[in-house]
């Protein structure tokens, strides 16, 4: 069980740097995914990403000298992590995107910190201190500002929001499950095995659903967007986030990524010409306030 003064310790500099990189690069991953799925089906896109990222990260872990073999005693716990963080997240979010727009889905996906806070309290005994509760409230209000009037549209097809909420719950459960064990392998190898094992059902489903994918509309733009999502979004950002989870309490790690959908909205405005205005700026201020509550030590804020 984590120490009760976990929230009082200064955040490691490595965590701050990783969070900054994740926020920008994972935020830009959303417009990249929009570019990719405009030319590829969601299933082909997902399958390509897990194959490229899983094999790529496994190779990086091997060349860097990380231990790759996971002892049998850890298999059950690892399957929970992989099935939640990779299989559940990707499959449920793919089903969700059949029923709702990607932008709205991204916002709902980042309710993950709420579920992570609940799971952390139940499984890890993390105390929901007032600062973290306030951070969650500010973050959710900020996300609410980002979607604004789009909230009305969510009621038209409830399957989309339902699947995305379940996807967010899976992601949160996988994040917290990482904290339940002291893993005997490095985080790159850990993330690589997550992508390989968790990606197998995705590839099998893709082979059944789309045995002959239509690549006739694929351009260099779509290829580069897919490679960005696989290499930057999964190989770097997913591994970096898993590292942050090992450096911070699970709830704090989850809250630290709340700015990603805002960056995604602003990045889509910049790269795709999608509308963005005062709501996005207010959302960004609120989310940054939420992040500061968990990342800035108390002694600096008194």
Q: What would you note in describing this structure?
A:
The protein has 302 residues and is mainly α. The chain is built from 14 helices and no strands. α3 packs across α9. It is globular, with a radius of gyration of 19 Å. Pfam families: EamA. Keywords: Cell membrane, Membrane, Transmembrane, Transmembrane helix. It is found in: Cell membrane.
Break the fold down into its secondary structure elements and pairings:
Layout: H1 13-37, H2 42-63, H3 75-96, H4 102-109, H5 112-124, H6 130-147, H7 150-153, H8 159-178, H9 187-209, H10 220-247, H11 250-255, H12 260-272, H13 278-295, H14 298-301
**SS-based class:** mainly alpha
- Stretches where pLDDT is under 50 for at least 5 consecutive residues are 1-8
β-strand percent reads under 5%
Global mean pLDDT: 81
Number of strands: 0
Helix and strand succession?
Answer: HHHHHHHHHHHHHH
| Largest sheet geometry | none
Radius of gyration: 19 Å
Concise description?
InterPro entries: AA-Vitamin_Transporters, EamA_dom, EmrE-like. With 302 residues, this protein is mostly helical.
Name the descriptors.
302 residues; mainly alpha; 14 helices; globular
């Amino acid at each position: 069980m984590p120490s009760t003064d976990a929230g009082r310790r200064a955040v490691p500099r490595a965590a701050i740097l990783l969070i900054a990189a994740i926020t920008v690069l994972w935020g830009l991953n959303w417009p990249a995914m929009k570019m990719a799925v405009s030319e590829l089906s969601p299933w082909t896109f997902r399958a390509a990403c897990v194959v490229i990222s899983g094999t790529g990260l496994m190779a990086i872990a091997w060349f860097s000298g990380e231990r790759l073999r996971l002892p049998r005693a850890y298999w059950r716990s690892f399957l929970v992590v992989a099935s939640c963080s990779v299989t559940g997240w990707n499959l449920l979010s793919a089903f969700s995107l059949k029923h709702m727009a990607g932008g709205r889905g991204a916002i709902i996906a980042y309710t993950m910190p709420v579920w992570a806070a609940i799971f952390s309290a139940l499984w890890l005994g993390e105390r929901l201190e007032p600062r973290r509760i306030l951070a969650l409230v500010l973050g959710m209000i900020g996300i609410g500002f980002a979607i604004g009037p789009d909230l009305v549209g969510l009621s038209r097809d409830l399957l989309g929001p339902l699947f995305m909420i379940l996807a967010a719950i899976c992601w949160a459960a996988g994040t917290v499950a990482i904290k339940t064990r002291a893993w005997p392998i490095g985080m790159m190898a850990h993330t690589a095995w997550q992508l390989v094992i968790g990606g197998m059902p995705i590839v099998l489903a893709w082979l059944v659903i789309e045995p002959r994918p239509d690549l006739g509309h694929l351009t260099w733009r779509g290829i580069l967007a897919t490679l960005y999502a696989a290499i930057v979004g999964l190989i770097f950002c997913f591994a970096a986030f898993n590292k942050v989870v090992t450096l911070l309490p699970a709830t704090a790690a989850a809250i630290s990524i709340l700015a990603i959908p805002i960056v995604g909205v602003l990045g889509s405005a910049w790269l795709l010409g999608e509308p963005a205005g005062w709501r996005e700026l207010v959302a960004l201020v609120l989310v940054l306030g939420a992040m500061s509550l968990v990342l800035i030590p108390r002694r600096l804020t008194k």
